[in-house]
Design a protein that fits this description.
It is a single chain. With about 325 residues, this protein is an alpha+beta fold. It folds into three domains: about 90 residues, DNA Primase, Chain A (Alpha-Beta Complex); about 90 residues, no CATH class; about 120 residues, Dna Topoisomerase Vi A Subunit, Chain: A, domain 2 (3-Layer(aba) Sandwich). The protein is built from ten helices and 14 strands. Strands 5, 6, 7, 8, 9 and 10 form a six-stranded antiparallel β-sheet that branches. Strands 1-2-3-4 form a four-stranded antiparallel β-sheet, covered by helices on one side. A four-stranded parallel β-sheet has the order 12-11-13-14, with helices on both faces. β9 and β10 form a beta hairpin. The longest helix is centred in the N-terminal third of the chain and has 18 residues. It is globular. The N and C termini lie far apart (about 50 Å). The relative contact order is 0.09.
Length: about 325
């Protein structure tokens, strides 16, 4: 075991201390999962998850903004741009020694087994004028929403089992709650556009728009969200179909991409034009050889249509599509 000249080794440093100390967490870690703003990238909404690894019962991190993930050593290694795990270990030990100089002790909270909240109930309501006002901004109408199995929700409920044996339940209501359903009626995602902290609540893995594909068109576009899939369809490109992964940070599996390559002449990617979106598109290029499009208008295709209208977006996008589709 690597150690400094003192008797302290890495085994003496609580795993929870590393995350609490270097991430300046305001709550003690006791087995819960938390989400914070990335410490590696500037972002508008939190996407860095601190979670317990059930195999080791130690905390790990996954930062969707930068793509970095790992254990406490990798956290410190990346935070301070160190060249090896060895250097990160030395830093952790030295910083913990310094911490103990000014603190008599560090009390590690007993690690509990938490369940994540899961959706256990929901109610579909009727469409309202309020819904029409929201979706019509993107030129998305009731027929398109019906085709992609989008329904407004009155509420949804979530519950989880607590370590003491009790059950916690919360009910979420609001005007802008929408359920995304598969053809068989299974709810796979909840969209809450007015919730800045959590716009999407994923219930299961699903390639959005996949059940609406005819597999008879020439080209396929991978967009960043179901809303972008529906908005893109309003542009009227007759020989193009669209899908979207769970999120820009979720890569569609290679086996699925290979099957789609057999069905289409060309596939390209059109994600958000911010840093996270461009980074994700580059991964599709590197891994699958798919060209990508940077639409330099608004952040995404649906917002571009909202601000500039269908015709203007189509004029700007057409040459970019043509280049991406035919470029090898």
């Amino acid at each position: 075991m690597i150690s400094t000249k003192s008797a302290i080794t890495l085994d003496d440093v609580p795993n929870t201390w590393v995350f609490e100390h270097y991430l300046n967490l305001t709550e003690k870690l006791d087995g819960q999962q938390i989400k914070i703003y990335s410490v590696f990238k500037t972002e508008k909404t939190p996407s860095m998850i601190i979670y317990i690894d059930l195999a080791t019962m130690n905390y790990k991190f996954k930062d969707f903004s930068s793509g970095l993930q790992g254990d406490s050593i990798e956290l410190v290694e990346n935070l301070f741009n160190l060249n090896s795990r060895v250097l990160a270990i030395y830093k952790i030990i030295d910083d913990y020694k310094e911490y103990m100089r000014y603190n008599k002790s560090y009390t590690q909270t007993e690690i509990k087994s938490y369940d994540n909240y899961k959706v256990n109930d929901y109610t579909i309501r009727h469409w309202s004028n309020f819904d029409q006002t929201y979706w019509s901004q993107y030129h998305i109408g009731s027929k398109m929403l019906e085709a992609y199995n989008v329904s407004p929700l009155e509420y949804y409920k979530m519950s989880r089992n607590e370590p003491d044996g009790s059950v916690s339940e919360i009910t979420i209501t609001g005007l802008n709650l929408y359920g995304y359903f598969k053809n068989d009626g299974t709810l796979y995602k909840i969209y809450q556009p007015k919730n800045m902290k959590k716009k999407f609540l994923k219930l299961s893995n699903y390639i959005q728009g996949s059940q609406q594909l005819t597999l008879t068109q020439d080209y396929l576009i991978i967009t960043s969200s179901l809303k972008d899939v529906m908005a893109f369809n309003k542009l009227g490109f007759k020989n193009i179909e669209c899908i979207a992964p769970d999120s820009e940070n979720t890569m569609i599996k290679e086996s699925s991409i290979n099957k789609l390559k057999e069905k289409y002449k060309s596939i390209c990617v059109l994600f958000d034009n911010d840093e996270a979106g461009i980074n994700s598109m580059q991964k599709y290029k590197e891994r699958y050889g798919l060209n990508y499009i940077i639409l330099d208008m608004e952040k995404d295709i649906s917002d571009s249509i909202k601000v500039h209208g269908i015709q203007k977006v189509k004029e700007v996008l057409f040459p970019l599509l043509k280049k991406a589709i035919h470029e090898r």
